[in-house]
């Protein structure tokens, strides 16, 4: 059917979508979510939205995605019904509990990347993976398919990488690990993500000290020159299927693709040695040590299949790492530690343990000491500054150069005692309500952490915001929730849930 | 956040969708598929699409659905982040295999109808229902929730209805059952659907003899006057959640909501007595008798919970009902039978059995004979003509008044023998390729059915099309597939699948 092309000027989330008038859709014998083939210089498969008013009979409305794929948009385009893709049958097989083989999984992943599968169908596949589970063969197939449907880097025979399963606020460890490892001569092409539900992702933190939106080619040049980089992974087209799966998983809080997601990104950068940090605790993504142990075992097995030597490090995740939460505040803290201007014991211990494990997995002895040495001698700092320069930032940047929000709210102890617990989720909520990660200068600085002695009126932590409106939002939130517990070590009650909840707070607010 | 409203002029499949610029989305702290609250005269919850180019910073693009909900569109609108709806938690619970209670299911169904749940989330729920299954309590809750989130009819203390699980081409039984039942004084407010994957739905058939797009109020008046109606259910807002679930189920070929879908529509029209036809056979939706027996048991149990007295009739579904397939051809055949101008034994038997069961379930004796009597005496025909008049059609319509496609293709026997089998799916494909259900005059007329004796060159069936292009399409398809088997009763082979398939056809084509 020959239809007049109409550019709608709307984006459809990366997927090629056409709008057909109901009349034409009926004429073609196609319903919403069906597929058509657009015959142009190249054939494009698109998913159909049916319009009753907004697109006229005889017209086909195209999304921005299709406009870009077409290049020069023809006045008329031939639209044909397209049969269901094979990948749909494979998704159905997974729904029925059948194990999928590599070829089938590859077809599905390719359908996801090419946009031939609708949101519905992808959501159904992800849900089936969650309920039915996936075994090691399937996880391997998914990882490799995700790698092969994207770009790949090739930076040498031995490439190391690190990853954190995440969930702990203030975790700026990567900002230390990458320069420590590169300073010792290893190759570590680190790609990171931005925050989705957290207060800062590593890419958000790094961006406050240097550009992180770097192309594949530039990245290769940088890594060849200085051994490492700290870039945003989102623009590199590494395992792009992952980003689409994540979008589906997001609101449902499920992540059956956790392992393939981690490992495909690592395989795509050509990693041969990998250390995975699994923060563990009530306030982390992984709650218990036995859960973390099982996850570690699975990650290591999958690593073997993908020919990536993998070690996992279980870390303490009951409270934020270091004293800061929020992109710029965290970058400042990392910079200060690298410059030996500030002593942040838990952050240093964690970074040196992870860097140390990377050293040992690649054959060096006394990894922890080697890592500490890279820090103490300033070689890690020098390496970071070289990296900053190569990525297009100011090599001489100082911690105070990073702007921090000027609106503050002090949270003070109502009574004396000890910090007994910190609620990570509440801390993230407060930092986000104050503007993080969008407002890079927003966040939280702790004066006290778990185990610290507290006197009445001591500042427990300070909230920073760039905009007073957002500080008000954080203030309102703090009236409602209780992110920190101060008391005696023997105090057992966190709070009591009554019919009308009464939260016993151990702090007062002051601006 | 106050944003300038921009009418995008696109429809978003019934769901309220806004497009935000990436900058504003980040500022609000929201990702794609997140939800926002639009503050206007009434609050509207909308699902977010993130745009990078097509919507400018400071603007909010609204879909046609939202434009309609807003009525007068304000120049600016306050957009706030909206938290995840409770229903998402309940969907997650189902994913984890937990049984859902009525309140939880109601929240989900309401979220579906109000558009507060995204396509992803609905697909995930439907998939979870398919894999985890749903028990009778959950099916009851789903049915009732679907009823309560839509319109309801109240037409009297005793209202009867019929339903077919479907899957057999040419099934025009309803066109006979409704006038037979109404002629005997029962109330039967029949709503029907249009074809999605078949060659004709009952609404498509009925539409060739009278208007079927009738409002709730008109429908009530018609039923009060003549006891029955034959209308399209799609515009009546009866159990509207069902239509949305069906859209998700469609491409995945799953239908975990089959029972609630059937029963909610019946409950919404106020049915107290129901007969469900379950066509059974290789060419029907339900393949085996034991499968049909189980389904019947479940339907009857659900009926009890919903206070609908239900009987199920298992019928022969190995070949089309009667001699015609396609909207107008089928309507002609039904009209001829009602006028006693044509004898179509299987159609008459099926219609009288189903109408008869309706009579018996409501307390009458000798239902089959009573039904047959309504047919023979012309009372059913008179009732249909009254109905046609009340629905705005021509009461004196004759079978020949229904236009049939003028392009024909005769399918003739290559050799003598007996019709051994008819492939229903292939018949539907041929009828659809010839233009049905869109072209109402397209379809198939059979001269021979299973068991009939065939001589060489006898016409087996004729394909009708309104457009020669579509007849060509049917012709091409017939070169490829084999919809009918002619041979000796003892011939056991249907066809042989070889590396290069060789289909042994028992027909030749003639135009």
TrEMBL record, chains A, B:
GO terms for molecular function: 1,4-alpha-oligoglucan phosphorylase activity; pentosyltransferase activity. One of its GO terms (biological process) is AMP catabolic process. Its EC number is 2.4.2.57. The keyword Lipid biosynthesis does not apply. GO terms for cellular component: cytosol. Pfam families: Glycos_trans_3N, Glycos_transf_3, PYNP_C. Signal peptide: none annotated. Transmembrane segments: none annotated. This is AMP phosphorylase. It comes from Candidatus Nitrosotenuis uzonensis.
């Amino acid at each position: 059917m020959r239809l007049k092309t109409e550019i709608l000027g709307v984006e459809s989330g990366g997927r090629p979508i056409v709008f057909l008038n109901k009349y034409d859709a009926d004429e073609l014998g196609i319903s919403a979510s069906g597929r058509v083939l657009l015959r142009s210089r190249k054939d494009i498969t698109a998913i159909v939205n049916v319009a009753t008013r907004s697109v006229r009979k005889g017209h086909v409305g195209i999304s921005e995605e299709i406009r870009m794929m077409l290049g020069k948009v023809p006045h008329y385009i031939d639209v044909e019904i397209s049969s269901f893709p094979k990948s749909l049958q494979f998704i159905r097989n997974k729904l029925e509990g059948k194990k999928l083989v590599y070829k089938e999984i590859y077809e599905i992943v390719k359908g996801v990347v090419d946009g031939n599968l609708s949101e519905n169908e992808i959501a159904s596949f992800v849900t089936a993976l969650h309920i039915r589970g996936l075994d090691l063969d399937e996880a391997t197939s998914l990882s490799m398919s995700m790698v092969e449907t994207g770009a790949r880097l090739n930076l040498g025979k031995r490439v190391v990488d690190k990853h954190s399963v995440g969930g702990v606020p203030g975790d700026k460890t990567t900002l230390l690990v990458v320069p420590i490892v590169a300073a010792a001569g290893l190759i570590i092409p680190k790609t990171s993500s931005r925050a989705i539900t957290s207060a800062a992702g590593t890419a958000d933190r790094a961006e406050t000290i240097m550009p992180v939106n770097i192309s594949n080619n530039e990245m290769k040049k940088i890594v060849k020159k200085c051994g490492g980089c700290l870039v945003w992974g989102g623009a590199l087209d590494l395992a792009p299927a992952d980003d689409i799966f994540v979008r589906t998983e997001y609101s449902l809080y499920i992540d059956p693709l956790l392992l393939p997601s981690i490992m495909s990104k690592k395989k795509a950068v050509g990693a041969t040695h990998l250390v995975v940090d699994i923060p563990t605790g009530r306030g982390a993504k992984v709650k218990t040590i036995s859960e973390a142990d099982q996850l570690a075992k699975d990650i290591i097995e999958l690593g073997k299949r993908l020919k990536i030597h993998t070690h996992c490090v279980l870390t303490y995740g009951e409270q934020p790492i270091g004293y800061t939460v929020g992109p710029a505040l965290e970058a400042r803290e990392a910079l200060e530690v690298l410059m030996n201007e500030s002593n942040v014991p838990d952050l240093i211990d964690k970074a040196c343990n992870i860097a140390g494990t990377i050293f040992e997995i690649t054959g060096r002895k006394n990894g922890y000491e080697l890592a500490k040495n890279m820090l103490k001698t300033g070689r890690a700092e020098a390496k970071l500054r070289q990296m900053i320069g190569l990525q297009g930032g100011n090599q001489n940047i100082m911690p105070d150069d990073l702007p921090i929000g000027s609106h503050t709210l002090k949270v003070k102890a109502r009574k004396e005692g000890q910090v007994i617990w910190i609620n990570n989720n509440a801390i993230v909520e407060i930092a986000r309500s104050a503007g993080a990660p969008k407002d890079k200068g927003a966040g939280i600085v702790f004066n006290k952490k778990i185990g610290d002695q507290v006197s009445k009126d001591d500042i427990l932590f300070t909230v920073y915001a760039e905009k007073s409106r957002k500080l008000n939002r954080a203030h309102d939130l703090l009236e409602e929730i209780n992110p920190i517990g101060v008391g005696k070590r023997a105090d057992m009650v966190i709070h009591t849930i009554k019919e009308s909840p009464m939260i016993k707070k151990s702090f007062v607010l002051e601006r």
